[in-house]
Amino acid sequence: MPVRYQHASCPRALALGALLIALPAAGLAEGGTTVASLWQALGFSKSEQTFLEPDKAFVFSADVIDAGTVVARWQIAKDYYLYRDKFSFRVLDDAKVKLGEPVFPPGGAVKQDEYFGVMVVYFDHVDVALPIIRQDPAIKRVKIEATYQGCAEAGFCYSPMNKTVELDLPPGDAVAPAAAK
Amino acid sequence: MPRVRLAVLVVVLLGIAALAAGWLLYQRSVRDLSDQDPDVQAIDTSGLIGRPRPDFTLPDLDGVPRQAASWDGSVTVVNFWATWCEPCRREMPALVELQKRYGSKGLQVVGIALDDRQAVRRFVADLGTAIDYPLLADGEAPGIEVAKQYGNSFGILPYTVVVGRDRRIAFVQLGELTLSQAERVVRGLL
Predict the structure, then answer these.
(1) Taking every pair of C-alpha atoms in chain B, what is the biggest distance, in angstroms?
(2) A181 CA to chain B: closest CA distance, Å?
(3) DSSP strands (E only) in A29-149
(4) Residue A12: which domain range?
(5) Between β-strands A69-76 and B159-163, what pairing exists: parallel, antiparallel or unpaired?
(6) Chain A residues with CB inside 8 Å of B114's CB?
(7) Are the Cβ atoms of B84 and A17 closer than 8 angstroms?
(8) Binary contact (B83, A161; C-beta < 8 A)
(9) Is the residue at A68 inside a domain?
(10) Are residues A24 and A74 in the same domain?
């Protein structure tokens, strides 16, 4: 029995000893709070969590695919997502151009929100087709504001973000929106 | 003799452990300072610590304007949240409990919603549990502005700032705050 006891206590004694030496070392190395520093250095701390800048988490771009359609695109960082219901789009500075109903890609992932119920979210990327309705065919430029909102699987969200894009429209008398692809 | 050998072994192992710890910390500091992935932006909130708390005036759920100064002298836990933010809702019970445990000792939790006031009122009514601390809401933009003044330039939620009795920022938490973490912070300030 004593032998067994000695064996069992040895690793603990060593671990304690190592900690006693390592803690001051940690303090010297960083000049900060010792326990927290060592804990973080060993990768146990929650403060190691990374928060991407919103523009890095959700990279926005937009382009014209035909005379009547603009596509708004988001490249989404791994484990981040955007809510389908939180997208909104509007034309700025021009009463003669309007946007039709945005066309979202089918599918998407489903999140069960305790308060809001089922929410469709997009991971990785999402392209939203925006029908452009030109009331005056002479209009060659459109300025669109996109609003979107998303979160990270790690357990945090971003407040709504806005992006404005100005695009040249190809010639055409497109009054009716083109079908989204 | 075996005892001596054991003692030598212990000393050697301790030495190795100390070197390993030092190396780990060195690597970490080197990585933090110069070798950061350019795509990964860590938000540095350390500069906020010790700064005087920014002022704000926002209406509560009854529309009554409330000023940051009205909680001066308390340890104030300013929590930025929104009804659509699931992790924010998840941490609310911890904040309710924090207020319950430390309210009588001079702690005040204040929730600032980056949200429409009606949405917050509906949420609170549906919740069924009392939130015994003031909730302020005046739409998204004013909440975002106050959050920015409190150092949250990325608009990340939840976001919590603890202000000491001296009106200076003592602690900042990006993302969810746990009750034990909050307790550790406020106990040192009360």
Answers:
(1) 80
(2) 30
(3) 58-66, 69-76, 80-83, 88-92, 97-99, 109-113, 117-123, 125-134, 141-148
(4) 7-41
(5) unpaired
(6) 159
(7) no
(8) no
(9) yes
(10) no
Q: pLDDT tens, A158-179?
A: 999 999 999 999 987 645 544 4
pLDDT recorded at residue A115: 86
In B, what residues contact A, Cβ < 8 A? 10, 13-15, 17-18, 20-22, 24-26, 28-29, 39-43, 82-90, 114, 123, 126, 140, 143-144, 147, 154-158, 174-176
Type and span of the H or E element at A157: strand A156-158
Sheet holding A109-113, edge to edge: A109-113, A117-123, A80-83, A150-152, A156-158, B156-157
Q: Tally Cβ neighbours within 10 Å of residue B108.
A: 19
Note whether ipTM > 0.85 here: no
Query: Residue B184: helix, strand or coil by DSSP?
Result: helix
CATH number of the domain to which A74 belongs: 2.60.40.1250
C-alpha triplet B153, B156, B157: angle, nearest 5°? 140
